[in-house]
Amino acid sequence: MELDQTEMQAVVKRLKRAQGQIGGILKMIEDGRDCQDIVTQLAAVSKALDRAGFAVIALGLRQCITDPEGGTMDVGSMEKLFLSLA
């Protein structure tokens, strides 16, 4: 199923922010920053990626409901995707 690109812009924005955070984490490691600070940032990036994944799943489910004939994903496939994020 191809997702609506306009609605995916929020996900793209979130992923770009996470990409910046990852760059910051790499710099923290290179600079020898405190372990606690690094892990805190890693947790934040992990949460951001999870939320991006859930947003993609939610968009896919919404599209399946509004246009059930237009997609190739069934409920079982969407459930499997959702659970892969857990």
Describe what you observe in this structure.
- The structure is a single chain.
- With 86 residues, the protein is mostly helical.
- The protein has one domain (7-84): Metal-sensitive repressor, helix protomer (Methane Monooxygenase Hydroxylase, Chain G, domain 1, Up-down Bundle), CATH 1.20.58.1000.
- It is 79% helix and 0% strand.
- It has helices at 5-30, 35-66, 75-84.
- The longest helix has 32 residues, at 35-66.
- The two termini are 21 Å apart.
- The mean pLDDT is 86.
How would the blueprint of this fold be written?
Blueprint (H helix, E strand, L loop, with lengths): L4 H26 L4 H32 L8 H10 L2
Offer a few descriptive terms.
single chain; 86 residues; mainly alpha; Methane Monooxygenase Hydroxylase, Chain G, domain 1; 3 helices; elongated; Metal_Tscrpt_repr; copper
Describe this structure in a few short sentences.
With 86 residues, the protein is mainly alpha-helical. It is 79% helix and 0% strand. The chain has one domain: Metal-sensitive repressor, helix protomer (Methane Monooxygenase Hydroxylase, Chain G, domain 1, Up-down Bundle), CATH 1.20.58.
